[in-house]
Specification:
Elements (H helix, E strand, L loop, with lengths): L4 H17 L1 E5 L2 E8 L1 H11 L1 H19 L3 H11 L6 H16 L6 H8 L1 H16 L13 E6 L9 E9 H4 L4 E7 L5 E5 L10 E4 L3 E7 L13 H11 L3 H9 L8 E7 L4 E7 L4 E6 L2 E5 L6 H7 L10 H16 L5 H8 L3 E2 L4 E2 L28 E10 H4 L3 E6 L9 H7 L19 E4 L3
Parallel strand pairs: 2-5
Antiparallel strand pairs: 1-2, 3-4, 3-12, 4-15, 5-6, 6-7, 7-8, 8-9, 9-10, 10-11, 13-14, 15-16, 16-17
Helix pairs in contact: 2-5, 4-6, 5-6, 9-10
Length: 457
């Protein structure tokens, strides 16, 4: 049956309106997207604007996850249908379905479940799968919780203007990190205006760096060696997005992140409220969480846990090992804190997030033991990530902002390692053919200039 002309015109008007609300700009290695409207509209805009990139990422994950975990895409789809879908708020179900609709409009046949796997890939592959293995054979599971990223948040006498400054760099497998190149500017029908970095298809940041219209600044670094998962809890990616969209204070953030906590993607969250000039560190495990707060201080993260109870009960982290990457970087953070106290702003933040000095060797180097680390050049390997020597992984991008920038929803972003070094795939594979299996999806990752992004008002 043919649709009446009026129906066709209404559909065309709807599509045109959505397109007018959204936009895309490619700049210095980043893809900036502006999304606005209802959850379905935001999702549709996201899916259609980034259709090619989402398809590329989903193909990459479908190839890569079995190498990581021995589990195929069908396994992950079944897991999220059974365990996650009903625990996702209706508005985020609609947004995920909207992304699938936008993809289909561009000729790509994915559904909302595929997009849940994409959004939950870290907590599934690195928390749920090891938990399942340990449940079946106690003590047998490899600990896959990542030790990725270096970040800080500072305020009071530690910053140049006495107001909050925050920075973060993302460490991950290069095959995924080269695709962590989206700046998402989201104006939802309800809640806060958000600007964040993410991968294509994510409804949350994922690594995480978020600035909101409520004056809340958010980042995190993972807890290395964490073990634990609750299949009955709310997915971490849902709680993270909800906290970004609806938290109007540090208390709100803590409440949203801890309610229904499933232990997936256990992090030290660094959070600031520009309205009060207060910063906080939320160390969130599964059984344990602890909050530190101050209006004059600095909290840093390089994947080291701090709460003795959490360390003893929920991690295999070796606090006494001064040579592991988190502790090496923790020592560097202590030096940087002393060196830059009273000077931290956007420019010094960029310098800090690109720092390559190793306190153990007293030299600048490309290794796992520096703030802007590289593993692809490091012969030592990284047991805390289960990364072997010379694995193609390390720092893939960085972000920095200040309270002054954040009031206008602005932040600086650097695609590629902020230490200024490039990763070139062809010579790498010649030197390390053992990783040739990644060549289909792993490409060059150039270090681009720092670029200022601003949300559209």
């Amino acid at each position: 049956m043919r649709k009446p002309l009026t129906t066709i015109l209404l559909l065309l008007a709807c599509i045109t309106t959505q397109a007018q609300k959204s936009s895309r700009e490619d700049k210095n290695g980043w893809i900036y997207i502006h999304l606005e409207g209802t959850p379905k509209e935001i999702g549709y805009q996201h899916g259609s604007l980034l259709a090619t990139e989402i398809d590329d990422l989903l193909n990459t994950l479908q190839y890569y996850l079995p190498h990581q975990t021995g589990k195929d895409w069908a396994f992950y789809r079944e897991a999220v249908e059974k365990m996650f879908w009903k625990k996702i708020d209706k508005e985020y179900q609609e947004e995920l379905q909207g992304i699938a609709d936008g993809l289909k409009a561009k000729g790509f046949n994915y559904d909302a479940i595929d997009l849940v796997v994409l959004n939950a890939n870290i907590e599934l592959a690195q928390y749920y799968v090891p938990w399942l293995a340990d449940k079946a054979h106690p003590g047998s599971a490899d600990n896959k919780a990542p030790g990725n990223c270096s970040g800080f948040i500072a305020t009071g006498s530690y910053t140049a203007d006495g107001l909050i400054a925050i920075g973060h760099n993302n460490w991950t497998d290069y095959i995924l990190g080269e695709r962590w190149n989206v700046i998402a500017d989201i104006v939802p029908a309800k809640g806060n205006h958000i600007i964040m970095d993410c991968m294509p298809g994510l409804i949350h940041s994922g690594d995480d760096f978020v600035v909101t219209s409520a004056g809340i600044l958010i980042t995190e670094t993972t807890i290395t060696g964490f073990k634990g998962f609750d299949e009955h809890g709310i997915p971490e990616f849902v709680r993270a997005r909800k906290a970004a969209q609806y938290a109007n204070s540090i208390d709100d953030f803590v409440r949203i992140m801890t309610k229904g906590n499933n232990g997936g993607y256990a992090n030290d969250w660094l959070v600031g409220d520009t309205k009060t000039n207060e910063i906080a560190r939320l160390e969130l495990g599964l059984k344990n969480f602890k909050v530190w707060r101050t209006k004059d201080g600095i909290y840093t993260g390089s994947n080291f846990p701090s709460d003795p109870n959490l360390i003893a009960e929920e991690t295999t982290f070796k606090t006494s090992d001064s040579t592991n990457s988190p502790n090496s970087r923790k020592r560097r953070w202590e030096s940087l804190t002393n060196n830059y106290k009273g000077k931290i702003d956007a420019e010094t933040g960029k310098t800090i997030e690109g720092d390559t000095y190793n306190e153990l060797t007293n030299a600048k180097e490309a290794s796992r033991c520096v703030i802007a680390g590289r593993v692809d050049t490091d012969p030592k390997g990284c047991p805390e990530w289960s990364w072997p020597p010379f694995y193609p992984g390390g720092t893939v991008q960085g972000k920095v902002t200040t309270a002054a920038l954040a009031k206008d929803l602005k932040f600086w972003a650097h695609m590629g390692n902020p230490n200024g070094e490039d990763f070139l795939a062809a010579p790498f594979f010649q030197l390390h053919p053992e990783f040739q299996w990644q060549a289909k999806y792993l490409h060059d990752m150039k270090s681009n200039p720092w670029t200022l992004f601003e949300a559209k008002k």
